[in-house]
Amino acid sequence: PLAGELIAYRKAQKAASTYYKPMLDFVDYRGRIHPGFRPHGTKTGRLSCAEPNLQTIPADYSLPGILDCFIAEPGYELWSYDLSQAELRVAADYANDETLLEHLATGDVHTATAMAMFGRADEGFRRLGKVLNFGLLYFMGPKKLATQLKKAGEEGVDDQIAYTLHQNWHQTYSNIR
């Protein structure tokens, strides 16, 4: 029981130091925060948010009370959107890559990629599919791919294996190049 209480305390402490207290620095005279959104705020061209970064707020209720801190002004509503694999969807449409479009339509493109490339999609292979999908979409080369796969827990990946995976992904989604 004590361990459970300690874990709950640490979670609350982390929430306070990471989310609640820092947000107070951005509250205006009306009790509102106004984050800055940058359409091309990352090196890869992805949307970013700062001061405060609302993209790091958990979308679920894993952090008790965090979503309750966001209250719409009277007469307004707050909406939340998750652009599920937005970059992959834009690339597939732009390149008219029928295989990627078909895989996106399955509901889990990373599982579909793993099945297409490895013939299986358990959690480890799905993770490989995800690293490949997002990494190669943003022009990750074989050396960087090997590094990223090792970070994802794939210890046995060397440059040659990464090169082969790189080539196979581009063969699977041949119009993306």
What is the fold's blueprint, element by element?
Elements: H1 2-24, E1 36-38, E2 48-50, H2 86-95, H3 98-105, H4 109-118, H5 123-137, H6 142-151, H7 159-172
Antiparallel strand pairs: 1-2
Helix pairs in contact: 2-3, 3-4, 4-5, 6-7
Molecular structure report:
It is a single chain. This protein has 177 residues and is mostly helical. Helix content is 51%, strand content 3%. It is built from seven helices and two strands. Strands 1-2 form a two-stranded antiparallel sheet. Helix 2 (86-95) runs antiparallel to helix 3. It is globular, with a radius of gyration of 20 Å. 15% of the residues are buried.
Q: What's a concise summary of this model?
A:
By secondary structure, the protein is mostly helical. It has seven helices and two strands.
